[in-house]
């Protein structure tokens, strides 16, 4: 069994992958798109990607690739607490204050720490990388420059960097949802899930006024609990969208009936997966 993840080792996604498999079974990829493309080409058994953060919201590149390109279901979800650290090369562990020229990280990590960075490093340039651990690699490769990375504690240990500011995320309840996708059912025998969720993508071939109301009413009168609804561009033309909907699965029969009604209303329905949700430990 192989699981692809957004790497390198030490990224938050690598920690999520390690929740489901041993280190020898997980394979690093440089971007979310290349990881999902490898799954699509059957080069992997599973892929794990971040899909939503409690501060920054949806990871659009993951959601849109899954909806538009991938015919592989979600098998599990993992929710991980995310703790961001500011780290420098050991060469600057005593001289980093007032000297940090650049701060590098994944766009989501920078967004999750904007208040801290604006308050403490208003004049430092921010650069984005493919992952938080790619930022750590940059620091190692620029050891003569006072650059800082925003990444996990595990990443600092993997690259032998010095943490100079701890837990710098703007919200101390920072969490990220990760989806494990694959063609075969994935079962965890040693862990208990908290609940079952189903994710749908719903659209119309011709958008009409009241489309969203019609969707919501189908679920509302059946008292089906929706935990998320979001619109994303349908990529057909400007102003056309699909709706991404998360459902807390309590009564599967009621959900089936709701989907039958939506189909009768000429909705295009894509079930992205019905899957257990797990909560991991602090990262």
From TrEMBL:
<keyword id="KW-0584">Phenylalanine biosynthesis</keyword>
<dbReference type="GO" id="GO:0004664">
    <property type="term" value="F:prephenate dehydratase activity"/>
</dbReference>
<keyword id="KW-0057">Aromatic amino acid biosynthesis</keyword>
<dbReference type="InterPro" id="IPR045865">
    <property type="entry name" value="ACT-like_dom_sf"/>
</dbReference>
<keyword id="KW-0028">Amino-acid biosynthesis</keyword>
<comment type="pathway">
    <text>Amino-acid biosynthesis; L-phenylalanine biosynthesis; phenylpyruvate from prephenate: step 1/1.</text>
</comment>
<dbReference type="InterPro" id="IPR002912">
    <property type="entry name" value="ACT_dom"/>
</dbReference>
<dbReference type="InterPro" id="IPR008242">
    <property type="entry name" value="Chor_mutase/pphenate_deHydtase"/>
</dbReference>
<dbReference type="InterPro" id="IPR001086">
    <property type="entry name" value="Preph_deHydtase"/>
</dbReference>
<dbReference type="GO" id="GO:0005737">
    <property type="term" value="C:cytoplasm"/>
</dbReference>
<protein>
    <recommendedName>
        <fullName>Prephenate dehydratase</fullName>
        <ecNumber>4.2.1.51</ecNumber>
    </recommendedName>
</protein>
<dbReference type="Pfam" id="PF00800">
    <property type="entry name" value="PDT"/>
</dbReference>
<dbReference type="GO" id="GO:0009094">
    <property type="term" value="P:L-phenylalanine biosynthetic process"/>
</dbReference>
<keyword id="KW-0456">Lyase</keyword>
<dbReference type="InterPro" id="IPR018528">
    <property type="entry name" value="Preph_deHydtase_CS"/>
</dbReference>
